[in-house]
Amino acid sequence: MEKPLKGFFVTLEGGEGSGKTTLLHRLKDDLENEGHSVLLTFEPGCSEIGKQIRLWILEESQNHPLEPLAELMLFLADRAQHIHECIRPALEEGKIVLCDRFTDSTVAYQGFARGLDVPRVQEICELVSGYVKPFLTIFLDVEPVVGLERTRQATKSGKMDRIESESVEFHKQIHKGFHWLHEQEPQRIVLVDANKPIEEVHQEAKTLIFDRIKEYV
Ligand code: T5A
Fold it and tell me: How far apart are CA 157 and CA 151, in angstroms?
């Protein structure tokens, strides 16, 4: 029998350069300073198998373009392994799990932007994640062009990966997808304006997460 999940699961979502990674490190410090035990994790590529999958997904192969359905399956295989090896054990131990991207990214990227059938993508995501569901998702809402420029500036070589290099229109579809998800589940998916300076985004996200933890315990 599966053990109960005592922990608190939070995901951060948004388009490229929305500031998830920067914010997650700050939130981890905030929570640990208050005595919480935290696992900071990300998708794709956190498990050993996931590291291989990440290379297949993000590296450009001009000769063998990745099919949208194959791409979807790779993200899901990464997630299944990630949940099994990292997320579920941490939640069983009662930790706060902060995860950089989860199922909402799959719906926004593979559903909205790649054009796969959104309800079916949601269904298959549910099959993979089972009852491991975020209690809170912070959607960092940044204008796609602004986020892409941040990513470009942050990349030392200036070389973007396979998904970052997609067209601006593709990234606008992702943005639309995240807004749609937020409208479907406004209680779980809370929008934070990530066009603002990082200090303001941090304060807003910190208040949100601490308020939700108080409600939960
Ligand atoms: N993907 C993922 C799918 O297609 N389907 C899926 O199911 C899943 C799980 C993963 C890729 O896979 C896709 C989405 C992605 O394309 P990745 O390398 O793991 O790629 O990278 P991302 O998750 O996209 O993360 P990034 O590092 O690109 O962006 P972040 O984490 O959102 O942004 P961050 O914090 O690194 O910041 C980028 C730059 O902006 C600055 C930072 O200092 C940094 O220089 N910055 C700000 N500047 C001004 N104002 C602010 N508010 C700022 N916040 C950050």
Answer: 11
Q: One digit per residue, pLDDT tens: the chain, 217 residues?
A: 677 789 999 999 999 999 999 999 999 999 999 999 999 999 999 999 999 999 999 987 767 789 999 999 999 999 999 999 999 999 999 999 999 999 999 999 999 999 999 999 999 999 999 989 999 999 999 999 999 999 999 987 778 899 999 999 999 999 999 999 999 999 999 999 999 999 999 999 999 999 999 887 6
CB-based contact 17:147 (threshold 8 Å) = yes
Ligand 1 atom 55 nearest Cα:
19
Q: Of all protein residues, whose CA lies closest to atom 44 belonging to ligand 1?
A: 154
Structure tokens belonging to residue 62: 């001009």
Looking at the chain, the number of H-run helices and the number of E-run strands are 9, 5
Domains and CATH numbers, the chain: 8-216 (3.40.50.300)
The closest residue, in CA terms, to atom 33 on ligand 1 is 19
Is the C-beta atom of 154 inside 6 A of ligand 1? yes
Ligand 1 atom nearest the C-alpha of 201 is 52
Report how far residue 169's alpha carbon sits from residue 187's, in angstroms, rounded to the nearest whole number: 28
Q: Is the pTM of this model over 0.70?
A: yes
Determine the distance separating the centroid of ligand 1 and the alpha carbon of 62, expressed in angstroms.
Answer: 24
Å from CA of 16 to ligand 1 middle:
5
